[in-house]
Amino acid sequence: MKKLALHWKILIGMVLGVLFGLLFTNFDWGPQIISDWVKPFGTIFISSLKLIAIPLILAALIKGITDLKDISSLSKMGTRTIITYVITTVIAVSIGLMVVNIVQPGKTITEETRNELVEAYGGDAASKAEASKKQKEAGPLQALVDLVPENIVAASSSNRNMLQVIFFAVFFGIALILIPEEKGKPVKDFFDGVNDVILKMVDLIMLAAPYGVFALLAALIVESPSADLFAALGMYALCVVGGLALMVGIYVVLVKVFTKKSPGFFLNGIAPAQLLAFSTSSSAATLPVTMERVTEHLGVEEEVASFVLPVGATINMDGTSLYQAVAALFIAQAFGMELSLSVQLGIIATATLASIGSAAVPGAGMVMLVGVLGYAGIPEAGLALIFAVDRPLDMCRTVINVTGDAAVSMMVAKSQNKLGKPHVKEWDDHYSEVK
Fold first, then answer.
1. Which among 199, 143, 128, 54 has a CA at the least distance from the CA of 382?
2. Do the Cβ atoms of 6 and 362 come closer than 8 Å?
3. CB-CB contact of 223 with 118 (8 Å)
4. pTM over 0.70
5. N or C: which end of the chain has fewer CB within 10 A?
6. pLDDT single digits (tens) 341-350
C-alpha cells in the first residue's frame, strides 16, 4: 500500500481535531480533558518550531550568503540577480500587507471571541502590546538603533530579537566571503553542516505535524468555538491566495516589460514546474524541473539558469514572505493589536531578510514566521490560529516561489543578452521527439 503523503496526514489531523473538539464540547468534562491531556501536545509542537527558529535562520542565512562566492567572478550577473530578488520580495511583502490592511480579516472576529483568544492563547499579550506601544512612541531612528545587537548571544536568546540575529548573520556571511577561501572553508563547512542538521530537525518536527495540528484544533474548538473565528480564518486564507495571485500578475508584467515575452509564453513554459511545486511544497525538490523548463522552454541560456535558479531556491521566497506578512497582521488583528507603520515597515525588512535564510523545504515558512511575530511583538501562540490551513497555503506559496525564480532568470538573461529561442517550442513537438 502506498504511503500516505504528509500533507494528507496533516489535513486528516486537522479534520479529526475539529471533530474531536466538537464531540467533547457536548460534555461538561470535555473541555477540561482536552485542556489537560490534548492541548499540551499542541503546545509542545509550537515550542519545537520556536526552538529551531533562531538556529535555522542563523545557519541557513550564513550558508545562503557564502554560497554566493561566485559573485566575485560573476559580479555583474550576481549583483543584478540579488537586487532583483530583493526587489520582488519587498514587492511581495508589501502586497501582503496591503491586502491584509484592506480586508482586515482578523477584525471580523467579535470582541467576545477576541477576549477568549487573548485569555486562552495570549499569555503575555498585554506586555507585548505595551512594548508595541512604546515602539510607536520611539524616535524615527529607533528601528535603526535596534537593528544592531550589543551582544549576539543575548540577541539569539529571544525570538523577539530576530532582526538583530539576521543582521549578524548577514554581516558574518559577508565577512566570510571577503577572507581567503582556504581560511573561510572550515567555517563555511561548519555552517553547511549545521544547516543540514537543522533541516533534518525540521523534517522530524514536521513528522509530528499531524498530531500537533490535531491537538491545536481540538483545543481551539473547545476554548473558542465561535463561528466567526472560522469565518475569519477563511478570509485570512483568501487574503493569502489573493495576494499570491496578484504576485503572479506582477511577474507577468515584469516579464512582458523586460523581456517582451507574452504572459501565455511564460506561464505555459513554467506550468509543469508550478504543478510539481504545488504537489511537493519544496522549491529545492522542484529545482531540476524548473531548470529544464527555463532553459528548454523559456530560452534562458544554461550558464544563467545554473546560477540564478539555485540562488533563487536559496534566497528568493516571495510567496513565503507574502504569507508571513499576511499571517502576522491577521494574528495581530485577531488579538486586537494595532501595529504602527514603523512596525509594519519592520515586518517588510524582517520578512525580506528572513526569506534569504528560509529553507526550500515544506514547513520552513512556519518556522520563519516565528521570527516575524517575535519582531513585531505579536503573541507566538497565535500560530495555533493559522496552522489548520497552513499546508494548502504552503503548496500555493511554493508555486509563487518557483514562478518568481523563473521570472527573474528570464529578466537577468535578457540583461546579459543570454535569452534566446526555446529549444522546445511546443510540448507536443517535444513529446514526439521523445517517442
1. 128
2. yes
3. no
4. no
5. N
6. 778 888 877 7
